[in-house]
Amino acid sequence: MDLDLSSAALENCIYCGACFRYCVLGAYNELDGMELKALVAGVTRIARKGYRPEKDGRIKELLDRCTLQGYCNKVCPAMVNPLVRNRVAKKRIEEER
Ligand code: SF4
């Protein structure tokens, strides 16, 4: 799996939330009050800039539900690779521990 964030094409993201909404596991059917757009923005920010334990705790908790099945890549309408985005964000979180 390529962990080069540039391969995720994040600049194409329109923050529609489909990558989480249509998770094949249904892991994001309930978001504990968070907006899908905010979740996408939070995960994207972590992938790009790193994890801030004091501010990103809720994003981390939600991203922990992702088991990297990759179905998100099939539903993204904007040629983004959300699987790489999520993998990089998870790695950034691990590095901060
Ligand atoms: S990665 Fe794709 S599916 Fe996810 S919010 Fe961005 S455009 Fe939508």
Can you offer a commentary on this structure?
The mean pLDDT is 95. Helix content is 45%, strand content 0%. The chain has one domain. It has helices at 18-21, 36-49, 57-63, 72-75, 82-96. By secondary structure, it is an all-alpha fold. The structure holds iron/sulfur cluster. Iron/sulfur cluster binds at residues 13-19, 40, 76, 78, 80, 82.
How would you sum up this structure in a few lines?
With 97 residues, this protein is mostly helical. It has helices spanning 18-21, 36-49, 57-63, 72-75, 82-96. Helices cover 45% and strands 0% of the residues.
How many domain units? 1
Q: How many helices does DSSP assign?
A: 5
Order of helical and strand elements: HHHHH
The mean pLDDT is: 95
Q: Roughly how many Å apart are the termini? A: 23 Å
Unreliable residue stretches? none
- Nearest-angstrom radius of gyration? 12 Å
Q: Describe the sheet with the most strands.
A: none
Helix content: 40-55%
The shape, in one word, is: globular
Structural class: mainly alpha
Number of strands: 0
Which cofactor or ligand species appear? iron/sulfur cluster
Tell me what portion of residues adopts beta-strand conformation: under 5%
